[in-house]
Write a structure and sequence with these properties.
- Belongs to the LysR transcriptional regulatory family.
- It holds the Pfam family HTH_1.
- Keywords: DNA-binding, Transcription, Transcription regulation.
- GO terms for molecular function: DNA binding; DNA-binding transcription factor activity.
- Helix content is about 40%, strand content about 25%.
- It is of the alpha/beta class and about 325 residues long.
- It folds into 3 domains: about 5-70, Orthogonal Bundle (Arc Repressor Mutant, subunit A), CATH 1.10.10; about 75-165 and about 270-300, Periplasmic binding protein-like II (D-Maltodextrin-Binding Protein, domain 2), CATH 3.40.190; about 165-265, 3-Layer(aba) Sandwich (D-Maltodextrin-Binding Protein, domain 2).
- The strands form 3 sheets. Strands 3, 4, 5, 6, 7, 10, 11 and 12 form an 8-stranded mixed β-sheet that branches. Strands 1-2 form a two-stranded antiparallel ribbon. Strands 8-9 form a two-stranded parallel ribbon.
- The two termini are about 40 Å apart.
Length: about 325
């Protein structure tokens, strides 16, 4: 019995994406080609790997067994490629990184841009996940590294400091609250809010904090990103809560005012999580060390409010 690593990689993508259509897109394959590969794999093994339905796919017991082995084999392939590239003095391969919305919006774009300039042959695949999904997928080997809040239960995963950032209330420059230097989140809840989709983990977090005070977030407009929140708030559509690093460029050009939230939960520590540092591929370790080093390239030098910045070279 022989296995094609391309088929195993496609199989893993399909499982992670929840459908053949989205899995094929992740693997950069046409849907027809991906479907044919999966049918041929099932025929060659003489087993059914998926229960196919209109809502997506569900793994059969045989599919779950194959997934566990496929992850191991693909991880070993990554490790082999990295080890052999080390003899050439170059690193080239793929690192799978998951991040929650906060880390993805506030810090990763500039950090990864600087990293890729230094290591152009390395491919970093980044996907947004909820914190508990980050823990699960790093733990089972689906991803190499994860970024999430420090107060997340990470089980047996190793964690290292990444960044500190503060959540701030952003308001239009002429707003009645614009002169405030600081305030509690509850004191702003009578204002109309611009926020993320109500199902978004970050928005759910804010809703929970409001509920703890016996109030609710008056969410008038829902958008997909923190930048979009800043854009609409700057236009006078309401107020919003975003990471300070995201608000900084808007504050600098005078389109917004950022008000420090006095609530203890507004100061958020982010960490890197991984299974075992010693077991990472050379590529994944290189990225982990870069992110853990707190590169100055990623620090928003024009931040209106200076957040505590933590970084530790792993």
């Amino acid at each position: 019995m022989r296995f094609d690593l391309i088929d195993l990689g496609l199989f893993r993508h399909i499982v992670e994406a929840g459908s053949i259509t989205h899995g094929a897109a992740r693997a950069n394959l046409a849907l027809a080609a991906a479907s044919k590969r999966m049918r041929n794999l099932e025929v060659s093994l003489n087993i059914q790997l998926f229960e196919r339905a209109r809502q997506g796919i569900t793994l059969t017991p045989a599919g779950r067994t194959l997934l566990a082995h496929a992850k191991t084999m693909l991880e070993q392939e990554d490790r082999l490629r990295g080890d052999l590239h080390a003899y050439s003095g170059e690193l080239a391969g793929q690192v799978r990184l998951l991040a929650n919305n906060h880390a993805l919006a506030a810090f990763l774009p500039s950090a990864l841009a600087a990293f890729q300039k230094q290591h152009p042959d390395l491919h970093v695949e980044v996907n947004e996940r909820l914190a508990d999904e980050v823990v699960e997928q790093v733990g089972d080997g689906t991803a190499d590294l994860g970024l999430l809040p420090a107060n997340t239960d990470t089980g047996g995963l190793e964690t290292y400091p990444f960044r500190s950032d503060r959540l701030v209330l952003v308001v239009p420059t002429g707003h009645v609250l614009a002169r405030r230097k600081g305030m509690g989140f509850g004191d702003a809840l009578d204002q109309p809010f611009v926020g993320l989709d109500a199902r978004n983990a970050f928005q759910q977090f804010l809703s929970d904090k409001a509920l703890a005070q016996g109030k609710s977030v008056n969410l008038k407009i829902q958008v997909r990103s923190h930048d979009a929140v800043c854009r609409l708030v700057g236009g006078g559509a309401g107020v919003g809560v975003v990471p300070e690093a995201v608000a900084a460029p808007w504050v600098k050009v005078g389109q917004l005012k950022a008000i420090v939230l006095a609530d203890a939960w507004a100061l958020r520590e982010l960490v890197i999580c991984l299974r075992r540092l010693a077991n990472l591929t050379p590529e994944a370790r290189l990225l982990a060390e870069y992110l853990g080093g707190g590169s100055a390239a990623d620090k928003p030098a024009d931040a209106a409010l200076e957040p505590g910045q933590q970084g530790l070279l792993i």
